[in-house]
């Protein structure tokens, strides 16, 4: 492995191609390699040191009409998976630590032939039918989040499970797949807007096309052109003289020192009074494919709860949001906030309204528009915000009136983070929600987070704030929200025909049947609500700390969300 120059200065990784891909040698192989970016490093630390924490998982079901045998169908899936890995190369990459520098690097082995590519893909593809006749999705989802880490970054940063097929009406079958990825290679937009739709397209390709694709796409030149850059290398440079650039960063750090943090919000009312110190073990039901050893048990439980709004309830929300000029995304934030307020009110009915704290909803930001990235999302790119705050409104107010007030507030606050950089040059605006300032603040925060999350023996002492620490008094949000918007154009039934003509062309025709769920292995105290829009209504999938929140309490949240706008009648939660 080539050694890299130490970059001890806190600006040493900002917009200077520090994380550029290079060709080199690793373990006797020709490889492409680059250091992990700061955001990528934070998620890598999550997974490596905290039992797979933050690893991303999605379950998608396809409806398939086929005249293939079981073995031919498996081969088609393998070929599609192999092609997907070649097109989105972080799926086939690994992460290794350089023993000389202690830095973690992405490593992509350059394959020598088609057989090697297929062999490596096969090693990350598991057919559950080899071991189990049936797999219940709810049960399976709990197990994949509460056993030893499924990803081994030394071997692969992704793994695909194919569930036993089951018959559907009309002579088709349901083919369900679980994709698990390390968070340092993807975010919600990457998986839902790019990888999953592309996999469906590949499954519908013929065997000949897929074999041809492997031969052409594995070439070093084709792989090189697909290597995704880190977001830190894409950040715009601060313009002007050396003195002006120094002034910009000095002011940025002082602004972080004197900033007024957002107000404290009320604590998630679903939390237990006392958080459990250790994760509960679960029965080794899937021991042939999952690791149940006590030595590899994650430090905490991560559970999931889903809420589904009917078409009618969704239409009502959209109508109300539109009436006050707000977006559907803001409607999701407002609805989650309303549900939490009602649950908090039921938990503590005696506090005066004047003494109620606001709802605080934290959320990640897609930074790509901030630095002019217009390509398809193909790697993890995230920045973080202070979140939004919504005033506490009591449940005895009309539900529609509450919603319109809150969705207007949510829309106004979210809109501040939807600006684009006016040019590729960062001129140094100090508006708190200006893209230039968000990019700079995000970089500084990433430096601090990457350092803070390292084990003690890996800490470097890097400190961009010096004698002026950032005024980030950590105040936990009521909950987190991650909205990916509507997936109707990317993952929706009806895109591919399942008629006999389609089957005769390639031996198989597949279309989306259901996007079943998505989530992450939760962090301590986390209650992270993923939300998206479908043809059938709004969907919410929550990853939460099972040591802090009981499953029964999470079901209270589900009922509150689903019933609040159903038939115009709200439901009072009971804890």
From TrEMBL:
<dbReference type="InterPro" id="IPR052058">
    <property type="entry name" value="Alcohol_O-acetyltransferase"/>
</dbReference>
<protein>
    <submittedName>
        <fullName>Uncharacterized protein</fullName>
    </submittedName>
</protein>
<dbReference type="InterPro" id="IPR023213">
    <property type="entry name" value="CAT-like_dom_sf"/>
</dbReference>
